[in-house]
Amino acid sequence: MVTLENLTVSYRQHPALHHISGCFAPGSLTAVIGPNGSGKSTLLKSIMGMLQPAGGRVQLDPPRARVAYLAQLTEIDRSFPMSVRDCVQLGCWSVVGAWGRVTPALLLRVDAAIHQVGLEGFENRAVGSLSSGQLQRVLFARLMVQEADLILLDEPFNAMDSRTTAALLALVHLWHEQGRTVIAVLHDDAQVREHFPQTLLLARELVAWGDTAQVLTEPCLQRARALAEAWDDNADICHTDEAPRTRPLARQQL
Ligand code: ADP
Ligand code: MG
Question: Per-residue pLDDT for 55 more than 70?
Fold first, then answer.
């Protein structure tokens, strides 16, 4: 489904991900964890094709149109004037394209998704007027409408209350049962143990990747912490990589 082959991604020649290799199996449900700045968001953006590798590559089985990506809430521009229904309807983009018509069947799918995330009655509300939890529900509804084979979630439960987290986790389980591949950046070890069978532990390099019980061990976590403590933000430029080819990161538009 997704294969990382010796993947290195750099910002101005400073590697944020270094020589990562491995594979996300089709239908797997994986948590990506690691200290702050360990390259978790960089990994998702690289899989999404938003960042070009400095070395190695990401091999994707589904075409990019079948991949859905939810950025960290802090990277999302909430000021865009748009209703909840219009925002969820954007999930139909991969089916209808820029000029295609949203069919009545697709509109039903949009309304069903809004209902499923518990936002019935909010269809005409401006997204800018929603709480963080409500906005995250809208963005999950948009993911549902996309019907993607591969779903990438960057800290989807950050700053969510327990009720919202439970509702969104239920949707993640539903996607897993439907055979979709889900990769989520998370922080809460207990949540990872309970809900995510596979875990990838990053500290700019790969610390461990496999069954969660085998990855979330004290030696692995300790190694990740030790690597993070040794990071020097003024570290030497990595000369082993090709010149960086990062694209500017646009703010995520709704
Ligand atoms: P995480 O999501 O694990 O917190 P990131 O992938 O966001 O980590 O960042 C990894 C490293 O790359 C950090 O040191 C961060 O400062 C750096 N970084 C991330 N984005 C950029 C950017 N656009 N330009 C320069 N450095 C960046
Ligand atoms: Mg991040």
Answer: yes
- Domain-by-domain residue ranges, the chain? 1-62+164-254, 77-148
**Per-residue pLDDT at 252 exceeds 80:** no
Q: Which residue has the tokens 């091999």?
A: 59
- At 78 the pLDDT is 76
Torsion angle (degrees, nearest 10) of CA 32, 34, 36, 41: -20
Ligand 1 site, residue 16, Cβ cutoff 6 A? yes
Please tell me the predicted confidence (pLDDT) of residue 48: 94
- What's the gap in Å between 23 CA and the centre of ligand 1? 22
Residue 204's region, left for phi above 0, alpha for psi from -120 to 50, else beta, is left
Distance 185 CA to ligand 1 centre (A): 14
* Residue of the CA atom closest to atom 4 of ligand 1: 37
Is-above-0.85 flag for pTM? yes
Classify domain 1-62+164-254 by CATH number: 3.40.50.300
Ligand 1 pocket member 146 (CB < 6 A): no
